[in-house]
């Protein structure tokens, strides 16, 4: 996984609550056996019209936001299915950070596994960021994971919380599986104890 | 010292290692796998030259995108679906994991097959790359959905990195009124807490009304814990649970059964356990409900009317407007007057034998409304066979329902069973999101009996008027 570097990027405002994984990546695109190439289908049902052409009203089709690297969204982003195609599509589009007042649990976990930073902030602060994002391409947000801050184009800065282990993994681009395999001895000994205690499992 | 909740007990029994920051490495007893969220995980293993650590604890079954019409064991028409099912066939074979292919009568929706075959047992940790894994919590197992990277992690290490959730108790007191089912309980809870009300929690459902439910009903309740935002739903095991588990193909036998029972009987929340949140609902206050919008929290008793978006607060005002627009509904319309085109009975929420019995009881000797499209998709091949034996299949067919093979089908419409734009469906599944059952399709969630009633009248119906 790539290391997560601090960056300054365009933020697309999506002031909708409950943006679910069916909206993020409709199921007709789940039939792939690969992880890449899903970016063109991100938000497909809102982004394209019935004839396949772009819906000019959708934020990511607005020239100002085509190169967005951040999404600022309403409550409960990523609710719904566990499909990791949602963060894959977001990542493939070029989004590296999503900001909301709250995230659905599985989606939140999936982000970290794919080098995406989900940031949870209180409603007033998300609102400030939303208004900043609405200004378009010239208003860039600064995302600094090291110092855990988001800064608006006007220089207003908000601190966010992030789990220290996840932060470390994002910053170093570490792969969970490799880390856990280093604990093989502990897993082995747990397994043999469990086999004694609960042999029916 | 305060006591422990059931969640605490299962967590502690599976903790391999706890890091200083509170993240735990949890041992996984059962890993269920299906065709849609696993190919990239197996591919990842191959690329890294890794093995499946515990193939004997890994169970795979294709369900999400398999057609539910005859002949599917010969050929799956849709190329992408075929590729995914073939990939699962191949991965199951190469990595030596337990497998139920489409040609096997035991094939079905992964969350129905696991319990049916006795893979799911009390006190276990169960994961699957599917959010409705919460279903298995009905057995007092800690069960939750994971993403594909985590599927790969569990395949390689049989563990999962987890931070501990908070404890939430949802108590349903008293008795349910006639016509009210487990589905009405679980939807009503979400209606009360909202779809994010459970975020950060593991919910334990308890109370007299929960105790009175069969295992099928309990699975329906836990299935939708995720729709309330919770990581998992749990119900403490009791005689009903043990009775259901006993004699299943992979349940313990003989001395092992005795040993297991001894532990299982300790699986309950202590009286002095700490709860971070408690929600109590009187069983008597729960009515048969239906959803009107595009989120499972958009739920009301069938006797109510379509709500006015202006009555909501904050971001929900816009969301409700958008939902009514999408659903083609006007505020103030009585829910009972909403006409429907299609009825879907099935899914991991309501595709078990008890659900089919409840629907058949309403349909017996009746016909569905002219022009109605109606289908029953049993949750597994074994549920299907049993329903045929009990004569339920004939009742459905005589009423005008299509009688399908097992799978997820129209629950998520990845196979050919889809709604057309604007088509309105009474469904027993668990999600009414925009486009869930097909682009532009409109979904109303409800219990199997309510769906059956709607099939007969052609509009949303209070099942109590037909009993
Ligand atoms: S029936 Fe629906 S909710 Fe259940 S596993 Fe299948 S797709 Fe998911």
Q: What do you see in this structure?
A:
- The complex is a heterodimer of chains A (201) and B (467).
- With 201 residues, chain A is an alpha/beta fold.
- Chain A has 8 helices and 7 strands.
- Chain A is globular, with a radius of gyration of 19 Å.
- In chain A, 44% of the residues are buried.
- The mean pLDDT of chain A is 94.
- Chain B is an alpha/beta fold.
- Chain B has 3 domains: 181 residues, Aconitase, domain 3, CATH 3.30.499.10; 90 residues, Aconitase, Domain 2; 178 residues, Aconitase, domain 3 (2-Layer Sandwich).
- In chain B, the strands form 5 sheets. In chain B, strands 5-4-3-6-7 form a 5-stranded parallel sheet, with helices on both faces.
- In chain B, helix 2 links the parallel strand 3 and strand 4.
- In chain B, helix 2 packs across helix 5, helix 6 runs parallel beside helix 8 and helix 13 crosses helix 15.
- Chain B is globular.
- The termini of chain B are far apart.
- The interface between A and B is large, with 54 and 74 residues.
- Iron/sulfur cluster binds next to helix 12 of chain B.
- Chain B: Belongs to the aconitase/IPM isomerase family. LeuC type 1 subfamily.
- Chain B: Heterodimer of LeuC and LeuD.
- Chain B: Pathway: Amino-acid biosynthesis; L-leucine biosynthesis; L-leucine from 3-methyl-2-oxobutanoate: step 2/4.
- Chain B: This is 3-isopropylmalate dehydratase large subunit.
- Chain B: InterPro entries: 3-IsopropMal_deHydase_lsu, Acnase/IPM_dHydase_lsu_aba_1/3, Acoase/IPM_deHydtase_lsu_aba, Aconitase_4Fe-4S_BS, Aconitase_4Fe-4S_dom, IPM_dehydratase_rel_enz, IPMI_cat.
What are the defining features of this structure?
heterodimer; A: 201 residues; alpha/beta; Aconitase, domain 4; seven-stranded mixed β-sheet; 15% strand; B: Aconitase, Domain 2; Aconitase, domain 3; 3 domains; five-stranded parallel β-sheet; 19 strands; 17% strand; globular
């Amino acid at each position: 996984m790539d290391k997560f570097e601090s960056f300054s990027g365009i933020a697309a405002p999506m002031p909708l609550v409950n943006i679910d994984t069916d909206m993020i990546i409709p199921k007709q695109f789940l039939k792939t056996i690969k992880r890449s190439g899903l970016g063109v289908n991100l938000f497909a049902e809102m982004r394209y019209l019935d004839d396949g052409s772009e819906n000019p009203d959708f934020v990511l089709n607005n020239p100002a936001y085509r190169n967005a690297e951040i999404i600022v969204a309403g409550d409960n982003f990523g609710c719904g299915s566990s499909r990791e195609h949602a963060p894959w599509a977001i990542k493939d589009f070029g989004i590296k950070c999503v900001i909301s007042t709250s995230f659905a649990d599985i989606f939140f976990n999936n982000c970290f596994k794919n080098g995406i930073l989900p940031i949870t902030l209180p409603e007033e602060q998300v609102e400030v960021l939303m208004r900043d994002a609405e200004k378009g391409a010239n208003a860039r947000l600064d995302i600094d994971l090291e110092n855990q801050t988001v800064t608006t184009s006007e220089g207003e800065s908000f601190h966010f919380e992030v789990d220290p282990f996840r932060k470390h993994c994002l910053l170093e681009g570490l792969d969970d599986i490799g880390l856990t395999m280093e604990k093989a001895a502990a897993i082995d000994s747990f397994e043999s104890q469990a086999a004694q205690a609960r042999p029916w499992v | 010292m305060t006591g422990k909740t059931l969640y605490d007990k299962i967590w502690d029994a599976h903790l391999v290692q706890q890091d200083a920051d509170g993240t735990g490495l949890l041992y996984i007893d059962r890993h269920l796998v299906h065709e849609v969220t696993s190919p990239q995980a197996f591919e990842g293993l191959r690329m890294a030259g890794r093995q499946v650590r515990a193939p004997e604890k890994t169970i795979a079954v294709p369900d999400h995108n398999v057609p539910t019409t005859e002949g599917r064991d010969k050929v799956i028409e849709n190329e992408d679906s075929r590729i995914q099912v073939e990939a699962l066939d191949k991965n199951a074979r190469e990595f030596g994991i337990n497998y139920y292919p489409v040609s096997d009568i035991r094939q079905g929706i992964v969350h129905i097959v696991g319990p049916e075959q006795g893979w799911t047992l009390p006190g276990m940790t169960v994961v699957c790359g599917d959010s409705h894994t919460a279903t298995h919590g009905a057995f007092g197992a800690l069960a939750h959905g994971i993403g594909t990277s985590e599927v790969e992690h569990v395949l390689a290490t049989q563990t999962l990195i987890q931070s501990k959730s908070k404890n939430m108790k949802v108590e349903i007191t008293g008795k349910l009124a006639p016509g009210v089912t487990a589905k009405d309980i679980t939807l009503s809870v979400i209606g009360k807490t909202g779809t994010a009300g459970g975020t950060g929690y593991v919910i334990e459902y308890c109370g007299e009304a929960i105790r009175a439910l069969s295992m099928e009903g309990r699975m329906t309740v836990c299935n939708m814990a995720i729709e309330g935002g919770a990581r998992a739903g749990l119900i403490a095991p009791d005689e009903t649970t043990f009775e259901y588990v006993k004699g299943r193909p992979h349940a313990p036998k003989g001395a092992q059964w005795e040993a297991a029972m001894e532990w299982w009987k300790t699986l309950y929340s202590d009286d002095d356990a700490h709860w971070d949140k408690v929600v109590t609902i009187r069983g008597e206050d729960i009515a048969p409900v239906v959803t009107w919008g595009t989120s499972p929290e958009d739920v009301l008793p069938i006797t109510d009317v379509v709500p006015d978006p202006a009555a909501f607060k904050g971001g929900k005002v816009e969301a409700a407007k958008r939902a009514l627009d999408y659903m083609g509904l006007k505020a103030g319309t009585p829910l009972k007057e909403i006409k429907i085109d299609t009825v879907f009975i099935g899914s991991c929420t309501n595709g078990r034998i008890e659900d089919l019995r409840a629907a058949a009881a309403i349909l017996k000797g009746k016909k569905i409304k002219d022009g109605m499209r109606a289908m029953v998709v049993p949750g597994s091949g074994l549920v299907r066979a049993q329903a045929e034996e009990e004569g339920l299949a004939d009742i459905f067919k005589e009423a005008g329902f299509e009688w399908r093979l097992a799978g997820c089908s129209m629950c998520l419409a990845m196979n050919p069973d889809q709604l057309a734009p604007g088509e309105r469906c009474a469904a027993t599944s668990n999600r009414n999101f925009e486009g869930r059952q097909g682009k532009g399709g409109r979904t109303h969630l409800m219990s199997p009996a309510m769906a059956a009633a709607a099939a007969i009248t052609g509009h949303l119906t209070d099942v109590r008027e037909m009993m």
